[in-house]
Amino acid sequence: MKILKRFFIFLFLILFCYSIFSIYKILKDEKQQEQNKDELIEEFEIPEIPSEEPEFSVDFDSLKQINSDIVGWIIMEGTQVNYPVVQGSNNSYYLNHSYDKKWSSFGSIFMDYSSSSDFSDRNTFIYGHHTRNGSMFGEVNKYMDVNFYNEHPFFFLYTPNGNYKAEVFSVYTADALSDSYDQSFASKDEFQQYIEMIRGKSKYYIDTKIDISSDRIITLYSCSREYGYSKYDRYFIHAVLRDV
Q: pTM (2 decimals)?
């Protein structure tokens, strides 16, 4: 009995130490991620409120010297979203690597690997973790509230080929395997049907005009916490790109 008791005490101590170490690693990673973000924003003079600086452009030539995978920069006023957008050769690498390719549990904001890097596709998906501390896409759920949308009907996307206001037109949660997860369309009619479908899913109606012949949309995609912690729930935020 004494041996068994000592074994369980020893096991408890191991689990306790491991838990403390895991929490330490998470907090350290969180602090490092925020520090890296702040330093990058300061170095490239990225505005927190881009609507007040309409002439601003990102120095992508210098950014690509840090990582050639950088294809854009996204800023969402009223949230912590102010990050470079990267694109890897798959949709796994940047789940746990930062914009400078260093390991990070927070990952990066990244474009679907199969998309055109210049955002020329009809629908481009952009992914990011939904974090507890609000970093990455941890605050995109604010768009589930119509009052937040009314104050922030668009967000900003900067690219080497042009700067855009992304005008939001549909927001909702859906299953990860939802038919909303579609990026290619064989015809204008298919794209029109897709637009009508995702409009119908929106939590509230948004009267945003979309030209099926020429407009491109982007879809922000992140895990959802709306209904607990189901691994299958996702936030979908669709926006049409407008030239700044």
A: 0.86
